[in-house]
Amino acid sequence: MKKNIHPEYKEITVTCACGNKFTTRSTLCKDLHVEICSACHPFYTGKQKFVDTAGRVEKFQRKYGGDYFRKAEKSKK
Ligand SMILES: [Zn+2]
């Protein structure tokens, strides 16, 4: 059996935007940064992940009056 047929698999650290880190084996041989992982992906969690991209929440607030969000912000403080 020839040794050099298979690419080299190395253990890499994958860091997710949610803060989750895990190691995997990859031919990349370097650490990865992902925006979504099995810990926060809606497919795995069954929950919708709250991501405020490009001020979508702000637009929603303006459109619907934002009463819900104002209450939510008050309870945070
Ligand atoms: Zn994640």
Write the layout of secondary structure elements.
Elements: E1 10-16, E2 21-26, E3 32-34, H1 42-45, H2 56-64, H3 67-76
Parallel strand pairs: 1-3
Antiparallel strand pairs: 1-2
The protein binds zinc ion.
Residues 16, 18, 20, 36-37, 39-40 line the site of zinc ion.
Description:
This protein is of the alpha+beta class. The protein folds into 2 domains: 1-46, Rhinovirus 14, subunit 4; 51-77, no CATH class. Helices cover 30% and strands 21% of the residues. Strands 2-1-3 form a 3-stranded mixed sheet, with no helix packed on it. The radius of gyration is 20 Å and the shape is elongated. The mean pLDDT is 73.
Short description, anyone?
This protein is of the alpha+beta class and 77 residues long. The protein contains three helices and three strands; from the N terminus they run E-E-E-H-H-H.
Supply database-style keywords:
3 helices, 2 domains, 77 residues, three-stranded mixed beta sheet, alpha+beta, binds zinc ion, Rhinovirus 14, subunit 4
Strand content: 15-25%
Gap between N and C termini: 65 Å
Rough outline = elongated
What is the gyration radius calculated from CA atoms?
20 Å
Strands ordered across the widest β-sheet: 2-1-3
Give helix and strand order, one letter per element, not per position.
Answer: EEEHHH
> How many helix segments?
3
CATH hierarchy class name of the largest domain: Few Secondary Structures
Helical amount among residues, as a percent range? Answer: 25-40%
CATH architecture of the largest domain: Irregular
